[in-house]
Design brief:
Largest sheet: none
Order of helices and strands: HHHHHHHHHHHHHHH
Number of helices: 15
Helix content: 55-70%
Distance between the termini: 74 Å
């Protein structure tokens, strides 16, 4: 293979225009997750982020990096600050969900989420980090060019085509790479110990009472435990690698969906499974997402057209 062929392949991978429907759909899902995250934040605002909460601003600054960003460091140490940042986060989450001032909304969603994270790092879990990281990369995508109020407004003004234009996917590719690195690094980290390799990790995890939602008797069977443990490793490795193979992609995503839904049923890990399930939408082939979009639109037009005909017939009969 020639160097020019490699360069051309990389250029095509990052910059050959593709449909925007897949990343726009993920934006909507992330907006809904941001709203759920906001609700959990709002209902515990004073306890975790208030001036008289469990962690003082001074403590968070001592434990934080000198390079961190947080609105709490720039605004007065006042009870109203947490409320202001939370309301700003809500406005951004609504903007992301409905696609209004989309890029700006994603930016402020990222900044407000990061502000809450840096204000109290002691309560974070993996879903917080994944959501924050993917929001950063989403800023560089055309996520507002479909399923958005921005597009609706542009259409009314005659500034947008009927079908969203193809766009260079480099921002989407960065999100996809981040998605895959999460799973590859997870497998590498798990293999540092012995419990995942010997097949007993899930037995141990399901004995942590504070995380178990539904105790299942079948998880007392060692054979099933080993199969589930090794199956988890295979699925996670596949989500980080084999998902790039076109013929295997949707089978891998289906296995990943089953994995995360299974964890959601058994384990109490707020938001994480839903963040990863939403992120799987990034790996849907953009042209496939466009076909699904067109099929749904066609069905809706057909259904509404039939209803109009029925109404006209009934009026004529009268």
């Amino acid at each position: 293979m020639k160097l020019t062929s490699i360069v051309n392949s990389v250029r095509e991978f990052f910059f050959k225009p593709v449909p925007v429907q897949s990343v726009a759909a993920v934006r909507v899902l992330f907006g809904l997750l941001l709203l759920a995250n906001w609700y959990m934040t709002w209902t515990h605002l004073e306890v975790f982020w208030g001036t008289n909460g469990l962690v003082s601003l001074n403590t968070s600054q001592i434990y934080g990096s000198d390079w961190r960003f947080s609105f709490f460091d720039w605004l007065p140490n006042d009870p109203r600050t947490a409320t202001f940042v939370a309301l700003l986060n809500l406005a951004a989450a609504l903007g992301v969900t409905f696609g209004l001032f989309t890029r700006t909304s994603i930016l402020f969603a990222f900044l407000t989420v990061m502000s809450f994270h840096n204000r109290n790092v002691f309560i974070l879990n993996s879903s917080d980090l994944v959501l924050r990281n993917l929001l950063f990369f989403m800023m560089f995508t055309p996520a507002g060019e479909a399923y958005s109020l921005d597009r609706l407004i542009a259409r009314v003004r005659g500034l947008a085509p009927e079908i969203p234009a193809l766009r260079a996917p480099w921002g989407l590719r960065l999100m996809q790479i981040q998605f895959c690195l999460i799973y590859v690094s997870t497998v590498l980290f798990k293999m540092k110990g012995t419990y995942w390799a010997d097949g007993t990790a899930i037995y141990i995890a399901t004995r942590l009472d504070e995380f178990v939602r539904i105790p299942l008797p079948l998880l007392n069977n060692l054979v099933i435990i080993k199969l589930l443990t090794w199956g988890t490793l295979i699925t996670e490795f596949s989500l980080g690698t084999l998902v790039w193979i076109k013929e295997l992609r949707y089978w891998v995503l289906l296995a990943g969906l089953g994995l995360h839904l299974g964890i959601e049923v058994v384990m109490n890990i707020p938001m994480f499974e839903w963040v990863m399930i939403a992120a799987m939408g990034l790996m849907i082939e953009p042209f496939d997402a466009e076909k699904i979009d067109q099929w749904v639109r066609g069905k809706l037009k057909e259904r509404f057209a039939n209803k109009e005909i029925s109404i006209l017939n009934s009026v004529t009969a009268e």
